[in-house]
Structure formats: structure tokens, C-alpha cells
Amino acid sequence: MTATKTNGHTLAPIQASSLYFTPLPPTHVVPPGKESHGRYMLTIPWNRVSGWGQPKIGPRQDLTFDPLAGVLQYAVTCFEGMKCYKTDKGDLRLFRPKKNFDRLKRSAGRLGLPCEWDNDELLELFAKLMALEQPLVPSTDGSNLYIRPTLLETSEGFGIKEDAFAAEALLYVVTTLNLGLGLYPSSEGDKGIKLDACNEYIRAWPGGTGSYKLGANYGTVNISKKPGYAMSLWLHGKEDFISEAGAMNVFIIKEAPDGYLEFITMPLSNGIVLPGITRESIIELLQDHASDKRDFPLEGVPKKIRVVERDFSMPEIIKGLEDGTLKGMFGCGTGVVVVTVGEIQYQSQTYKIPSNPIIKVLRDTMTGIQRGKIDEGRSWSFQVPEWNPQGKEGEQEEHVTAA
């Protein structure tokens, strides 16, 4: 795959076959406080004139930028959140990785960063990085190796430029252990997380960047969170419509007048919420089940259901609590997978949200697919091939070209 410039020149694509691998030296020692981080990192530079440079996998290390780099001056950076899972058989799995790559392309395009590459080539590089980290990936349910691909502008981004496009950029990938189950459980008897409905800060607005996974979107998440609450429930508009909770998509479960159980979530059309991959997967599973295209992978989801993508507000949630039509609420995303919402603070009042056993079915289904325990029939789980770069890892430090 090549990207063509307007002057007719072709830019070099990402090519997994040109990977340059540097093994850990035999004297490698994990720095204090870094024990949960991966040992390796993948880097791929980009230049506006020549295109993508040589991919490299080597020991995790610090990055160096010019003080006027666009990432430092104007937060020209976007990222993805992914996870690597280990099955009971010991093999590694990634969940719908090309969906993440496509979303990264979309975010990069919004910032004027490079946004063209062959997903198969990038996936091959990801797989080799994961294979190297295989000993670090935990095998217990709820545990995983979190993957953070990041794309940023490394060229000077200071002042007004002739156009919005970066001259140089860097795509890098690092990993770290992430134990989501312990932080956001949805087990039987769990009361769910507590949310604070936030009026003071606005996360996103129509025409903004809320639907892109940009670094600048997430700096306000922690500053707005009140003590004692898991995260903020983001509101917008005079109606106090709900957009996201922290950094996850939100669903409510309501009983409709015709007796159907509705799974209602914010639409993507106004550009306020992130097009979550977990969100998309849950919607597809529910819609296939409702239409008899495929049964839901686990029992516990009724047939009389529908997915509704529309705005919903805090006043609607309160009314649903009063008339009994609100049957549950949950958030979903890479970090939390699926988590029950048990309590919301709104305008100095506390509202208890009823629990719903279907939420645990959704979570068990998603984690089962991710860990290779459930075959959903859609090839969502990608098995990472084993990779041993000519047995060089752990020997005396040298540079090898991976085959």
C-alpha cells in the first residue's frame, strides 16, 4: 500500500518485513516502579516527504522531542486503547484490532497526522511485539496486557503554519499490565459504580473533537472527578443529555410501552461520543439476537429487545426511576469492558439505579470472546502467532533484521 502526494511522489508505506529488532541486553534490569510495564516498544517514524520509516522493536526507553514539537505545544497527539489476553491454552489474543487501527486513522486525520497504512502490515508488527511480551501477559480472568498505540507530531508545531499537516510524526506502541476486573467489577451482587453527573465541565460539543480519541480530550477526566466517585457522568445541553461516563460509552435499559426491553445509547451522528469498539460489538450482538440472525452467545438475554440510538437525559433517567421503566444502566469500553452503574449524584441528589442481571451476561460474553472461550462466529478474536526472532532474545546485545 502506498500513499500518493499531489505532486505525484509516492510515500513509503509501513512494511512489517523491514522490521529492525534489538533484543534486550543480558544485563537488562527493570527500573524500580516500572515492573508492570512491557519490556519492549515498537516505533515507526514518519516524514511528510518520504513517508513511513523503518519499524523498530527494541527495549522500552524514553522519547526525545524538540521543545517546539507539535505534541508539546498544541497537544497534536492521538492514541488507542487495546488489550492482549492469554487463553487457558496459553495462546495470546487481540480483540478486533483492525477496528482500533481504523479509529486511529480517523483520529490522526482530524489532527493532520499521517493516517494511511495497511492494517495487515501494522497488525503483523503488533503481533510480534505481543509475542515478545508473552511471558508478561497474565492468564487470570479480568487481567490482561494493556496496549497503548500513540501517534504524535514530532516536528515543530509552533505558530501559524501554511497548512495543518505535520512535517514529521512518530507512531509508537508500549504496553502495561491492566487489571480491569478489580477496578470495575460486574459480578453478581455487585452494587455498581458511583457516578457524579458533571455540570461544571463540558467534555464535548457538536462539531468538536469528542468523537476522536485525542490526547487533549482526556486531560479533564481526572480534574472533574469528585472524591468517592468512580468517574464523571458527562452532560451537555440545557436538557442535561448524557454523553459518556469518564472515558466510556453509556447504555440505559428501559421497558418500552410495547413490553420490549430497550438498550438505549447515545448516537454517533452529532460527533459528541467516541465510536467505541466494545459499544459497537454489544450493539451487533444484541441486534443479531433480536432479529434471529444469531442467538446471543450466552443465555439470559430475552428475545423481545431492541437497540435504540438516541439522546437521553438525566431527567429521563429520573422519570424512569419514578415510574419503574428504568431497568438498569451500564458503561462499556476497552478499560472497563462492561460495568454496572449503581448510583448517580445529580443536582445534590443521589439516585440509586436498579441492577439488572443482563449486564453481567453482557460482560461475561465480551470477556469470553476476548479470551477465546466463546466463538461468536465473526472472527473477532485474533490469535497472535508465536515469534522467536532467530533465538536472539536474551543473548548478547546485537541488531538483527527480523524475517
UniProtKB/TrEMBL annotation:
Region (Disordered): 383-403
Record PTM N6-(pyridoxal phosphate)lysine, positions in chain: K213
Compositionally biased spans, kind Basic and acidic residues: 392-403
GO MF annotation terms: branched-chain-amino-acid transaminase activity
Catalysis: reaction(s): L-valine + 2-oxoglutarate = 3-methyl-2-oxobutanoate + L-glutamate; L-leucine + 2-oxoglutarate = 4-methyl-2-oxopentanoate + L-glutamate; L-isoleucine + 2-oxoglutarate = (S)-3-methyl-2-oxopentanoate + L-glutamate
InterPro entries xrefs: Aminotrans_IV, Aminotrans_IV_CS, Aminotransferase-like, B_amino_transII, BCAT-like_C, BCAT-like_N
One GO process term, biological-process aspect: L-valine biosynthetic process
A single Gene Ontology CC term: mitochondrion
Gene3D superfamilies: 3.30.470.10, D-amino Acid Aminotransferase, subunit A, domain 2 (3.20.10.10)
PROSITE patterns: AA_TRANSFER_CLASS_4 (PS00770)
Cofactor(s) the protein requires to work: pyridoxal 5'-phosphate
Alphabetized PANTHER family for the sequence: BRANCHED-CHAIN-AMINO-ACID AMINOTRANSFERASE, SUBGROUP IIII AMINOTRANSFERASE
Name of the featured protein: Branched-chain-amino-acid aminotransferase
Organism: Kwoniella europaea PYCC6329
